Amino acid sequence: MKTRAAVLYHTDSQAPFAESRPLKIEELTLDPPGPGEVLIRMRAAGLCHSDLSVITGARPRPVPMALGHEASAVVVETGEGVHDLRPGDPVALVFVPSCGHCLPCMEGRPALCEPGAEANGKGTLLSGARRLHHGKAAINHHLGVSAFAEHAVVSRRSCVKIEADIDPVEAALFGCAVLTGVGAVINTARVQAGTTVAVLGLGGVGLSALLGAIAAGAREIIAVDLHDSKLETASALGATATMNARDPDAIEKVKALTRGGVDYAFEMAGSVQAMEAAYRMTRRGGTTVTAGLPHPDHKWPLQQVSLVAEERTVKGSYIGSCVPGRDIPRYIGLYLGGKLPVNKLMGQRMPLAEINRGFDRLDSGESLRDLIVF
Ligand SMILES: NC(=O)c1ccc[n+]([C@@H]2O[C@H](COP(=O)([O-])OP(=O)(O)OC[C@H]3O[C@@H](n4cnc5c(N)ncnc54)[C@H](O)[C@@H]3O)[C@@H](O)[C@H]2O)c1
Ligand SMILES: [Zn+2]
Ligand SMILES: [Zn+2]
After folding, report:
1. Hey, whose CA ends up nearest to atom 23 of ligand 1?
2. Does ligand 1 lie within 6 Å of residue 347's CB atom?
3. Does the beta carbon of 230 lie inside 6 Å of ligand 1?
4. Separation of CA 310 and ligand 2 centre (Å)
5. Which ligand minimizes its atom distance to the CA of 46?
6. To bridge 287 with a disulfide, which of 209, 313, 371, 372 should be the other Cys (CB 3.0-4.6 Å)?
7. Ligand (nearest to CA of 367)
């Protein structure tokens, strides 16, 4: 069949993207689903900074690639051997397919699935196949999803079936921003009720972490960003204090507010400066978690002696250390129960044709989670 998708051919594009137009909307050929795969019709796809990092080359991926990884969809057709999904089922997409058999999968850490990571690095589905073509040329899949497209073929292991009563546009956020941000708080850091938290970087991921910290019962939550508009959003969501990262005294002010620093600081900006600030805002004995994905050449200089003499913990968090089939239903349940108001993270809704303009908005650092709606 044919589908329209946003395809990236070069990874060195400069803003403004509305002019450089790194994403071309093209009609591609989509093969039928193979064994263990499903054909889906996209409902909505969020614009995440990880997509932007592929466009700018900060996150190197093979091109040509059909971009997009945070989405909700409806099952259209199931491939051989898929018996637990039916046409019409609503699903959220997860950006690491998990094989279920490798060591991380057996340890209950499917976010680290080895065949899943290998397929994502190569731009294939979990099966190793590429189901998208432009003429005779194969097009790479982005993180097994390629969500900026009307239809996609994905591994069954990239899908989590979701409740029919959640709005399909809101559901898209659960596959990346919410799974990553809330999971960093609940799974990676295991934030305890009554503790203090700082969140640095208030995009879809950081604002989700903020909501996660509120749900976890943190006593004080300090939100930090470069943009005052983001600080206002964070206050409205329930941050107890805000700090502009450009303030030269930001670290000292956070320490003063929390008598020596927060129990947990979350770097959700993808920048070494934010990581350094997060570490220094963390109290002695505290935990600094990072979910940011800066350029692989960017290194954070850690003062080793402080790690030891102050018994600090530094943790990386990929997709919120999730078990997707366990966590997405949990977070959707919290949302439907009014305890995780993810709908307040939604920015603009736009058609696929406006996607380059959408990345200009994300690049400005001022947008909330914008979505392509199909
Ligand atoms: N670990 C994972 O599984 C995972 C999943 C999704 C996204 N990510 C990464 O998480 C990061 C955030 O993603 P997003 O989509 O929310 O991004 P976003 O662009 O929507 O938000 C980033 C925010 O960080 C702010 N910021 C930039 N520099 C800062 C600084 N020095 N101090 C404080 N704030 C600063 C920006 O103003 C912006 O508000 C990116 O690096 C992205 O690639 C990781
Ligand atoms: Zn993402
Ligand atoms: Zn695995």
Report:
1. 201
2. no
3. yes
4. 33
5. 2
6. 313
7. 1
Residues 6+ positions from 2 with CB-CB distance below 8 Å: 27, 28, 29, 30
Q: Domain 2-175+341-373 in CATH: superfamily?
A: Medium-chain alcohol dehydrogenases, catalytic domain (3.90.180.10)
Q: Is the CB of 157 under 6 A from ligand 1?
A: no
Write the CATH number of the domain with boundaries 181-317.
3.40.50.720
Amino acid at 300: W
The finding on whether 291 has its CB within 6 A of some atom of ligand 1 is yes
> Which residues does residue 45 pair with via DSSP β-bridges, in sequence order?
71, 372
Which tokens go with 266? 């979350």
Could you tell me whether strands 90-93 and 159-161 are parallel, antiparallel, or unpaired per DSSP bridges? Answer: antiparallel
Q: Going residue by residue through the chain (374 aa), what tens digit of pLDDT does each one get?
A: 999 999 999 998 899 999 999 999 999 999 999 999 999 999 999 999 999 999 999 999 999 999 999 999 999 999 999 999 999 999 999 999 999 999 999 999 999 999 999 999 999 999 999 999 999 999 999 999 999 999 999 999 999 999 998 999 999 999 999 999 999 999 999 999 999 999 999 999 999 999 999 999 999 999 999 999 999 999 999 999 999 999 999 999 999 999 999 999 999 999 999 999 999 999 999 999 999 999 999 999 999 999 999 999 999 999 999 999 999 999 999 999 999 999 999 999 999 999 999 999 999 999 999 999 99
Strands in 100-245 per DSSP E: 132-134, 137-141, 151-155, 159-161, 196-200, 220-225, 241-244
Residue from 205, 224, 290, 317 whose mutation best tests the ligand 1 pocket (most atoms within 8 A of CB): 205
